[in-house]
Specification:
Shape: globular
Mean pLDDT: 83
Radius of gyration: 14 Å
Low-confidence stretches: 116-121
Number of helices: 6
Order of helices and strands: EHEHEEHHHH
Number of strands: 4
Largest sheet: 4 strands, mixed
Number of domains: 1
Structural class: alpha+beta
Length: about 140
């Protein structure tokens, strides 16, 4: 597990969600500048930052902590996309869409994601380079 440089943005995700784990892998692949660090919402880093959401884990959203503050749902996802390389950075343009509409789409996707632990258990083992960006 890695150690985050001061000020580096952290993406907090549901570590028990196969879709969320695949999303982390996607971001790692397209984050060639190694901007982001990652921490499961079930982990020590989220607990120390007091970011563990209340309620049903199936309703948890991705949380981004960056230089502008704490962001959740569609704002977090689009702010992350805006910092990825290539075409993906253009998704940040959707931040101009009202949050209520964006979050409606985010909530629909989140509601239908597969939280199966079997799927989460089948994620590939991260490389040493990837492990350096994953916080406890």
């Amino acid at each position: 597990m890695g150690e985050k440089p001061a000020g580096a943005p952290i993406i907090f995700y549901d570590g028990e969600c196969g879709f969320c784990n695949k999303s982390v892998q996607f971001v790692m692949k397209h984050d060639t500048g190694r901007v982001f660090y990652f921490a499961p919402l079930q982990g020590e880093t989220a607990d120390r930052a007091h970011l563990v959401p209340e309620g049903d884990p199936s309703e948890w959203s991705m949380i981004l902590v960056d230089e502008k503050g704490i962001h959740d749902k569609s704002t977090a996802a689009l702010r992350v996309a805006s910092k990825l390389n290539g075409f993906w950075s253009l998704l940040g343009l959707f931040l101009i869409v009202p949050k209520k509409l964006r979050d409606g789409v985010y909530d629909f996707i989140a509601k239908h994601r597969n939280r199966s632990s079997a799927e989460a258990d089948s994620c590939p083992i991260p490389s040493l380079e990837e492990r350096e960006r994953i916080l406890p």
